[in-house]
Amino acid sequence: MAERQNASLIIERNAARHLDKLDRAVRNRFVDFQSKFCANMHQPGLRLKPLKSGKGLWSARVTDDYRAVMCKVGDALFALIAVEHRGQSYDRLDDRYDASVNRVTGAFEVVDHDDLNSAIETRHDTAPAPAAPRPETGPGLFDPFTDAELLELGVAEPLLPSIRKIEQDAQLDAFCAVAPHHTAEVLRALDAGFPLAEVEELITAPVKAPGEVDTADYATAIGRGSSMVTSSDRAVAAMLEDGFEAWRLWPHPNQKKLIEQRHKGPARISGGPGTGKTVVALHRAARLARELDSAAADSAAGERLLVTTYTRNLAADLKRKLALLLDEETMRRIDVEHLDSVVHRLASEIGPRPGTLLDDRTMTAWWAELAQQADETEFDADFLHSEWSEVICAQLITGRSEYFQARRVGRPRKLNRLQRARVWDLVERFEQRRTANGAWCWPQLRATVALAEEHRLKGPYRYRHVVIDEAQDLTPAHWRLLRAMAPREADDLFITGDTFQRIYGQPVTLSRLGVDIRGRSKRLTLNYRTTKEILRAALAIEADARADDLDGDLDSLAGYRSVMTGAAPRFAGYDGETAELAAIVDQVRAWTAEQPPGSVAIAVPQKFQVDNVIGALRSAGIPVFPLSTDREPDPQAVHVGTMHRLKGLEYRCVLIGRLGAEHFPFPYLRKLADTDPHRHELETAKARNLLFVAATRARDEAVFTWSGTPSPLLRRDR
Q1: In whole angstroms, what is the distance from residue 84 CA to residue 69 CA?
Q2: Which pLDDT does position 557 carry in this prediction?
């Protein structure tokens, strides 16, 4: 009887593609195989044996008809590189697969020559006109670069002959889809026009192995962060269930350092859409959760971790993705909630449950009535409401003397002591009316809960670590609450965000709120989602825009770029809304004829326009899903929502419609231009950011439509 021996099975990225192509029944059987192999690799039914290729390849039985092809990288450590039909497992392996260690990155890499040769055969019968003419240096896309230059950047040496055959973008796209990850990134960057030095700095340097690389040491290579491998059973199960798209949670090698790095205090990752901020936040949260004391985490006074963001649907998405990375026991150590849910939960500890929620329209009406009753003519309702929410509630002010000393940076007008006294009298009347009506509102509740948490005396801190995604939309009261919930220790707060995507909150300076990130900030610049053509259009929207960096300075999108190429976005104006709606229907019909409906999204500025688009699509027999915070999106229907609803999502194709000047930016801004110039500037910036966010949800194609005069925020070229 064979000796029992546990084993470790690592899944290489090439194998992930193979698994994704298998029938679901075979994928399900692979889960059983993985479990059995790791428990005892010498089980007779697995038929583990070396192949005759002389390349360290082994095979094992998955089903009667399918075999796992693996590379032995240690005594009981194997890397899965493919799952093949048994008729293919033993034939031509010498020609088909190469497993090697990259001389520059030290990463374990697999080359599938059959897939690469198929990619080279991919050609356009008639090549589309490129966005810009290529230099006349020869038929190959990479003829301008020597073999030595490519190898210095870390291109896999066995691929050089194939790379020299790439003549068209279609071939390059197909080639990069199956090539080792680092080689693909280098080639895309060079094709996008990056200089050699910049490719070295942005792509190669972050993953370059320290010292000399032993190309025969597979075990060390597998353990390097630059290797695109995973041993997570849950990640594999997620891919087998949801397809290769689930592996977008896989961090890029140059992000792994950010995940593993230790910080003495709060740290922040910034960067434009698609740069991987959320992936870094999720994997960092997973690492911190695994390191928590499990016994303490399950107790009432134990160590726990909070993962939070501004909106409910983003929090739900974070929770779903974290569950793919962690087992159930570790997930119990984490609270994943949008921050206002935390506020509402903690409010119940302070006193009776909140009563009636006041919306902005009702509160503005109250301020108007109170001002009229007090014969106040200098300050209108909009000013009073914003002063109360953005100064008094934001700074957790509870008394007259505090308000007299409050900083009011960025407010539309200066107030002397007498004017502040009149405002405070109205604030007291507003609070009396709110209390008498048993009502509450978010600015007041956030301030109340943050103050209570700062003065809480019982028990330990609520959380050992807090991970915050989309941090740019949080209010000062949110930040005070977050600071109070975790001890000022190593790795206490981890923050990701992009102030060019702020569509809700107001500028803040974190250091003034007790969150010191000096010396612990990193900016990501490479976009992994959007083509350079779509990115160019999105950046044009933000041209000349200014955004704070959450710490008293200005942020920038300089250097933000993509290494992917694709079709140029299309801009189309129409004589009227009826013609525009008809064009939207035609475009959606064309897209859904080639891909799943759930990969297509339509975004418009306002809710009533969502209803109009949904009605038109349904009349055309197209399945539609209205985006909301309450339901998981339907993958079998086209998604339609306001631009706000697209935040945090991504699609292959996005159409942003109703971008006429009459509807966008929003009509209420026209009034602010005269009554509150500062607020007009702030809200216009939010509208610009909103369009930028919507545009960067598109991975492959983007279309912008309007009727009448186009919005002044819709710029077509930088």
Answers
A1: 7
A2: 66
